[in-house]
Amino acid sequence: MPQGEQALATIQSQHKWRFFRSGGFDQVTLDSAADLQHLDELDPKLWTVLNCPTTGLEFDNRTAALLDLDGDGQIRVPEILCAVRWACQHLHDVDIMFKAPGLPLSAINEQDAQSINLKTAARRVLEITGKTEADALQVEDLTDMTLLFSPHHFNGDGVVTAELASDAELVQLITEIIQTQGGQPDRSGAEGINSDSLTAFYQEAQAVVEWHAAAHSDDPLFSPLGDKTADAVVAFEAVKSKVDDFFVRCQLAAFDHRATDALNPAVAVYEILSNKAISNADMDVAALPLAAVAAGAALPLGEGVNPAWSQAITEFKQRVVEPLLGAKAKHKAGHVTAEQWQQICELLQPWRLWLAAKPETRVHQLEIERLKAIVSASGKEQLEALIAQDFAASTFADNLDAVERLVRYQRDLVTLLRNFVSLSDFYQGKQKAIFQAGTLYLDQRSCELVLKVSDMARHATMAPFSGCYLVYCNCERQGEKPLQIVAALTGGDVDELMVPGRNGVFYDRQGRDWRAMVTKVVVQPVSIGQAFWSPYKRVAAFIEAQLQKFAASRDKDIEAKTTTGVATVAATPTQAAPSAATTTAASFDIAKFAGIFAALGLAVGAIGTSLAAVMAGLFALVWWQIPLVIAAVLLLISGPSILMAFLTLRRRNLGPLLDANGWAVNTRAKINVPFGAALTGLARLPAGAKRSLADPYAEKKRPWRSVLLLLVVFIAAGLFWWFRFQ
Hints:
By secondary structure, the chain is α+β, with helices and mostly antiparallel strands.
């Protein structure tokens, strides 16, 4: 590019940013199309947030997932810039991003093929939803896929439903494939088949056809009993393992006669069985040998067989032994020898090997004749053509995702930017920020800075660095999963908050109420006024505690003395009653009382002398100096508390609260005293309300307070006159 054109392009690319000051730092203003188009030129150091989580926010989860390109659960600066560039690229009028939710068709440009396809898909959505091109697309128009993708139309997902087949034979074939292979979900919500299920079905059908073809039913070596061979094999398999066990035991007995007793059940086994009710189906009986074991013994087919196996042996005799051995050799009546058993195994072996090769598939549900017809017909090629035709119709489906993205960005992206690039939603108060979960009502106040807590341990570690007075609550609502929140109290008195068990009500952003129970409190200063009075409240609380402690100890002491006295009297009922003088002397020591009274008098006198000295010094001053001295004394008492509160309130900021939830806040977002007062509402009577002061249950007024106050004023005036004019 020539130097002149490059300089011109540089001048044209410059954008005049506007900032506003709030929260103790400069925040960029985003309210025009030019701001979005040049957002990638803004220094990331001026961004308020560098990344935020996709969950736990008052922000659409689907939109957050679309912004999270790498799917790691975090939205970062590059992903924000990518979304803004993509939206600006496809919008003819970028100012639509700042308007009410709804994307008109005219706002989509047609500068390239991608934008043209996107606009075509958007027009198709308007047609399907019954809207005209003058109407705006809403997010709700794109949430029902069953409406946008009809099972009667190709939709590009490669799934063919029965509704797409015009031939009844193909409809039946698709139904049978779904029956044996399982249905594949179509974008319309119906079930169909795809290329994988089609291929698997034909492979399994071919294997079953070939397996049936391998059965030579007319060959006596393969099927020695003809059409009864299958039933004979079933009866044979039912007893094979048990018959093998019997003959092996007999062979071991022939090998060593000493093993005969060990190979037969021990007497103790029968003793155990004799102590309970047994039947032919008893597992302990079935575990015994098939018959009595002896060297060279034959298997009995009737009497002498284990009762648990008698039915199976009878079936074996009728279906296998008699049909096979009756014509081949004369077997010992009612018995089968080891040689005859081996002969039976050899005769049935070809059928058993064929049966073991049976394919494991649900295609066996279909008749073999139907499978032969399916394999020999051209249904597979026709279904493959339908699947290819469905894939060819993917243009609308592919661009529908882009339409949904653009409509969601138009509704939600600027909201995210005003909680990411800046925190204007939070500081300017036009609407709640996306991290504000709702409003907590507790102790006659409403807390607006309420956040959901996903990781209590992490949050409790980091959040105290915010400098805010925090209240953690567990919220419950019938039919909903419990949630944990943390609320920042930035106004009002906090002396009555109790942990645990203090209850409140939490209203989420949908207006639903939750029962909130306080579980933890992080104590921090709330206001300068609270800090001023806190020393006096602590002293008052200390005095009250000491008085209660003293009263409790005296009450306990009196109770103990009374109990001891009663016990003493009860223990000596026959003794003479003590004289009055003795009783008086025991219960009242005049010397001790005089000492206590003297000590109290000295204490009162010392206090009075000190007060007199203080008053003398105070009234010795010029009259206008007295308020200054009183103010200095108050400042000396409350000053340290006020200073600490001032320093804490000065560093109070939002950052640690968000960082504890997985955010990366890029600045110190302060919450100063005026802004904090706006985040916590206190109970106040409505403007113009009338209040009656008549309380039928109010405490009766007594004149002692007024009399005491007047007495103090007269004494002060007298002391002032005495020290001033004498």
